[in-house]
Amino acid sequence: MMRFSVLILFLSLVACRKKADPVVAPIVPVDTSQNTPGKLRLSFQNKAGDEPLVLHNDWYLTENGDSLKINIFEYYVSNIVLFSDTASYAVPESYYLVNEEKSDSKTFLLEGLPPGTYAKLQFLIGVDERRNTSGAQTGALDPANGMFWDWNNGYIMAKLEGESPQSAGGNVAYHIAGFRGENSVLQKVTLNFPQPIVIGKDATKNLHIIADALEWFKTPQTINIATYPVIASLGADAVMISSNYADMFRIDHID
Amino acid sequence: MNKFRSSALLCLFILVVTAGCQPDADLDPQTSITFHTPGGWPEPAYKFEGNSLSQAGFELGKKIFYDPRLSRDNSVSCGSCHQQFSAFAQLGHNFSHGVDNKLGNRNSPALFNLNWHHGFFWDGGSNHIEVQPINPIQNPVEMDENLNNVVAKLAQDPEYKNRFQEVFGDETINSQRMLKALAQFMGMLVSDHSRYDKYITGAPGGSMSDAELRGLSVYRSKCSGCHTDPLFSDYSYRNNGLPVTALNDSGRARITLLAEDMHKFKVPSLRNLRYTAPYMHDGRFNTLNQVLDHYTSGIVSSATLDPLLQNGITLSAAERSDLLEFLNTLNDDEFISDKRFAQSE
User: If you measure CA to CA, which chain A residue comes closest to B145?
Assistant: First the structure.
């Protein structure tokens, strides 16, 4: 019975998952009547609930009521696509590793964007299958960044490490990886802009995005740290956490 | 006019985008050497895409392969566990020996014809020849080092700076360049000069005795379903019925998490067996006679035992002796003594 319900849970998690096929080619330039390519800055701020995320120091309470201190918080943002009402533009070579420890990793400039009025943004949390399987990469994808599994090749799409008294060993480590089939943890995020962003004509806008680390521990599945202190292999547990963090992003403001 | 403007703009975007698709555009080596697919062989899986093969790149890869600075205490190189006289396996060790003489839990495989492999390691845990070396470098029982340190160590050496400059156009040293150079060296390790190869291609020195030819047909009927010629492996993952040991290495299932992959290992090639003992993923057999004893009387049945071996393999005494004669024609002396692959003094 227990087994059966676990199975149902697993199946429903798999079924609920949005299919995350990587976006490839350029799409349609949005407005070709103005010809100067534009820019857009993305700035990520990591939080824990309503609190700013302070690594190595502050304690937070998860949905389950567990105490958690976070020491490492990193995730890939890739395959960025901008949408107008009628068209879309895939930002080429958009691979970024946001690492709470490194302030310069939390903000970056998208350049060469077709001018136009945009309504929303889409990206992948993680690295698409192709870049997981096409050999030695560099920049954000340099395996020396510590986000690459050498024993079962592929990128760690997102990583959270910390401490919790609810963990028997004291530590918490979620290394979320997997890019294929039912083990895929690739999550596609869509963020609608609160008001349209005009790119090209006006000064470069800065889109401030908040990522809430506590979302890893709630919705759809409340995580009990005592049961899941460490997740560091492919499979249903990793997929479960990825479904949780799929909704950790929201737009704070644009300036 | 307007149409012209917008299509020009479109072209510009396509240009920008396609330029963006080639992160390796900085690889611009001068002299090329060529990789040659031996006649009658299938297309390799890796054709140095995005990694322009050059003499200088190959030489740089070789230097890195034999450099003990890739290990934590600068004591162990790739070449310590992959020795040319052993067809780049580690002679005489069932388990590999790494830094501090630490023992691994698998046998160092021979390295040749790697461009035809679709996955690396006994369990296929690595999906590309370029990223495969990250594992031995970081593995605590192999080199126990990290990529950043290795890159920093190489960058301190002016000789390396010159070499990277020569191969990649500037002296930047990073993990990608190091790994691509290693792949150039390893990919060139082609073994296709055994007596059997000469027999097949009609090259001089390619004569086979009657016993060897009888052995060839024994091989064709009993072994080639998995150890498929001309590579003498289909590089698939299979369970050949070895008894599970206390270590209980789950093999391919460790990577895929599928019960159907339990105790499956990548089929090794039958080339160069004279140099590569001991045999199997854990080096459990020291001689080919022991291997054949396994196939005739040692196969253990299990849920994942390969269908081709459900009824074991029968070999008469004559067939066994002919088969051993044939296997002996697959040894490639030229490969293990090829100066191009040897550590430079």
Answer: A144
